[in-house]
């Protein structure tokens, strides 16, 4: 069964450093998303991406965040200057149509120290 | 305020029991409601519901939506230890494609 692949599975970074979280969505999917889940809290929407541009973003997704699809297979989330409160599990997801259920990746646990 | 509320927060049952999980929502322009199972990391898709009163079924799991009363239930019959997980409910509004998640129900099935 097709999978969404995320790397790394766990990343530890120092406060103020830049991190790039990587995702390989399912190959024929057109819609891409990033969500995050702070430990013990709800899964929260960050951003959706379609046709090489952001289609929707939440208030969490401020100027320190950016997304990119640098080639035909990868989808990345960059956090420019990490803060302690950015520590969370970050999930990438993709879907082939806007109305369908997503497929989530297994997540990257980001720890900011 | 919370747009998607799940209950109970957690429950413990024994193998063979039936569980019923609840999800209520309050959104302006509802489009669909989705159920996910989260075991260790990634939420895995279970059901998507768009129409009231039509039960979706997959093996021992079933779900139904009530658009008038703004809730959905997820039933698991003849529970097994492998059903132990957090079950997440999420709502998609008509405008946009993002999902708004509830806080989840943690289910523990004991042998």
Question: How is this structure best described in words?
Answer:
- The complex is a heterodimer of chains A (113) and B (111).
- Chain A has 113 residues and is an all-beta fold.
- In chain A, 0% of the residues lie in helices and 50% in strands.
- Chain A contains no helices and 11 strands.
- In chain A, strands 2, 4, 5, 6, 9, 10 and 11 form a 7-stranded mixed β-sheet that branches. In chain A, strands 1-3-8-7 form a 4-stranded antiparallel β-sheet, with no helix packed on it.
- In chain A, strand 7 and strand 8 form a beta hairpin.
- The termini of chain A are far apart.
- The mean pLDDT of chain A is 93.
- With 111 residues, chain B is an all-beta fold.
- Chain B has strands at residues 4-7, 10-14, 19-25, 30-38, 43-49, 56-58, 61-66, 71-76, 85-93, 99-101, 105-110.
- In chain B, the strands form 2 sheets. In chain B, strands 2, 4, 5, 9, 10 and 11 form a 6-stranded mixed β-sheet that branches. Chain B has a 5-stranded antiparallel β-sheet with strand order 1-3-8-7-6, with no helix packed on it.
- Chain B is globular.
- The mean pLDDT of chain B is 93.
Total helices of chain B: the number is 0
| Average pLDDT for all residues of chain B | 93
> Which stretches of chain A are poorly predicted, pLDDT < 50 over at least 5 residues?
none
Tally of alpha and pi helices of chain A: 0
Keywords:
heterodimer, A: 113 residues, mainly beta, seven-stranded mixed sheet, four-stranded antiparallel sheet, 11 strands, 0% helix, B: 111 residues, six-stranded mixed sheet, five-stranded antiparallel sheet
What layout of secondary structure does this protein have?
The complex is a heterodimer of chains A (113) and B (111).
Chain A: E1 5-7, E2 10-13, E3 19-24, E4 31-37, E5 43-50, E6 53-57, E7 65-68, E8 75-79, E9 88-95, E10 103-104, E11 108-112
Parallel strand pairs in A: 2-11
Antiparallel strand pairs in A: 1-3, 3-8, 4-5, 4-9, 5-6, 7-8, 9-10, 9-11
Chain B: E1 4-7, E2 10-14, E3 19-25, E4 30-38, E5 43-49, E6 56-58, E7 61-66, E8 71-76, E9 85-93, E10 99-101, E11 105-110
